[in-house]
Amino acid sequence: MQRLRHRADFLAAATAVKVPTAAFVLQARKRGDDGPIRVGFTASRKIGTAVERNRVRRRLKEVVRLSAATGLSRGHDYVLIGRRAALSLPFEQMTQDFERALRRVCK
RNA sequence: UCAGUCGGCUGGACGGCCGCUCGGACGUAGGCCGAAAGGCGGUCCGGGAGGAAAGUCCGGGCUCCAUGGGCAUACGGUGCCGGAUAACGUCCGGCGGGUGUUGAGCCCAGGGAAAGUGCCACAGAGAACAGACCGCCGCCCGCAUCUCUCUCCGCUGAGGGGAGUGACAGGGCGGUAAGGGUGAAACGGUGCGGUAAGAGCGCACCGCGCCUGCGGCAACGCAAGCGGCAUGGCAAACCCCACCGGGAGCAAGACCGAAUAGGGACGGCGCGAGGCUCGCGGCCAGCGAGCCUCGGGAUCAAUGUCCGGAUCCGGCCGUCCGGGUAGGUUGCUCAAGGCGCCGGGCAACCGGCGUCGCAGAGGAAUGGCCGUCACGCGAGGGCGCUUCGCCCUUGCCGACAGAACCCGGCUUAUAGGCCGGCUGAUGCU
RNA sequence: CGGGGCAUAGCGCAGCCUGGUAGCGCGGGAGUUUUGGGUACUCCAGGUCGCAGGUUCAAAUCCUGCUGCCCCGA
């Protein structure tokens, strides 16, 4: 599993399927090859200060890491756009939301 | 003890499970992505956010670009004096002013208003070499009114007329700026003398200015003398004076390096004017090649000018070459460094010795989840004689905030906790 | 990293340079006109001039520091 690093990849993912939840918006794009899973995170300035943006990104990273075995498929790019609620929501609820969102994306 | 004020330090601790990143060692060139450069992936050990990392307001280091010299101007910044410093708009010490219980302390863009221009609304008589509204004083006039004196008419009286004098209302001429009133500000202030009333008109003190002397590196202070007061405020209005400033910024810069477009060199085709030479041609004309001259345009420090200079030159086809975009690597962390001791200095700071090795990400690591304890705060309860202290329970409680090349400052944000200096009041000895 | 702009009544703006009275339009309220509504007309209310200091007799305006929003260049 790799991280998305280039702006072009994020822009491509933005045109794909979007599934909103309380703490984040999940985007998934099928790249058309058989490469590894790639995941990117976005925490915009609207969320708050730099401390709050870092915290949102780290919690989202942890959500993805702990549930990586369930449902992520090869050849896809995933992008999680953080929202301000990700600062305060319980961690278990965010994990459940992520798995539910993954099932909706796969359909 | 209470109140005030100033300065410094700190910015939770321990543990469990699972992770991230950098460095080193080992292991492996077998997997994945990519055209390439390169990136990702294993195990062990070690390191891994701040006092402001923030705002980006100053000053530097570093890197690249530009830079012939002189003069003038513009633009921006700074502004008491001395020192510290790599430098600063920072810091330290001093001076002056303001403020504070004239205490500790705090604040000050704190050069120039007798170089010039400009502004000072409203109110007010007058607002900048001003002005005379009320008022005060002198002289003159004075219808009427009043007081007094004289005199005339009238037998006395009542009454009336005339003249003079004084007072008052009023008017005119002049003096004055003490007082009232307006204003943010009214051309020194207070007191005594003086005067018709007044006035630096005179005197004393204070303030101001000039000059001399003394102290101080200086800002400035002190003292004596002189001047009769001239110089209102605003320069965070224009401005003047002194000093400082080349520009950009790690997305700087260096290296590697697709696709597409464009660039250069060579070869071929083509060529503003004139002249010379050579070749083809018997000669001329003409054609080709080379060279020279002339003509044109453009560029060269923020601007102008003077002197002196430099550089460049149109189209089409083919071959080759380098520059360079996306991307990657590097710059990338040892630095005007931290700590301790000694010495110098009132201090900022400087010097010497010893010691430590202290983050390096790049859509951006330094974490996620949880437990225990401590501290603080709020609520509830209990105990001790009270101000208060102690104990127990509980809490979606726990400041501001995340390195982005590095350093010195400034500014702003910040739950609380700790330490020290000074001042005032009160109590005890 | 560098540069620039804006903040004034519920909304959109002027006034700032050159300091002294905060104004315009829409909107709101009341009234007149109309049988009624609209239109038109008259009147009225509504402002910490983003915040905090400073200069000045006096600050929306000048200066400094913050806060929020927007734009541009690399």
Key structural traits:
5-stranded mixed sheet, 3 helices, 107 residues, RNA-binding, globular, single chain, alpha/beta, Ribosomal Protein S5, domain 2
Verbal overview:
- The chain has three helices and five strands, in the order E-H-E-E-E-H-E-H.
- The chain has 107 residues and is an alpha/beta fold.
- The protein has one domain: Ribosomal Protein S5, domain 2 (2-Layer Sandwich), CATH 3.30.230.
- Helix 2 packs across helix 3.
- The chain is globular, with a radius of gyration of 13 Å.
- The mean pLDDT is 79.
- It binds two RNA strands through strand 1, helix 1, strand 4 and helix 2.
* Whole-number count of domains: 1
What is the string of helix and strand elements?
Answer: EHEEEHEH
CA(first)-CA(last) distance: 22 Å
The parts where pLDDT drops under 50 for at least 5 residues are none
Could you say what the CATH architecture is? Answer: 2-Layer Sandwich
- The tally of beta strands, per DSSP, is 5
- Judged by helices, strands and strand pairing, the structural class is alpha/beta
Q: Output mean pLDDT.
A: 79
Oligomer: single chain
How much of the residues is beta strand, in percent?
15-25%
CATH-defined topology: Ribosomal Protein S5, domain 2
Question: What shape does the CA trace take?
Answer: globular
Q: Characterize the biggest β-sheet.
A: 5 strands, mixed
Radius of gyration based on Cα positions:
13 Å
The strands making up the biggest β-sheet line up spatially as 1-4-5-3-2
Estimate the helix proportion, in percent: 25-40%
Helix count equals: 3
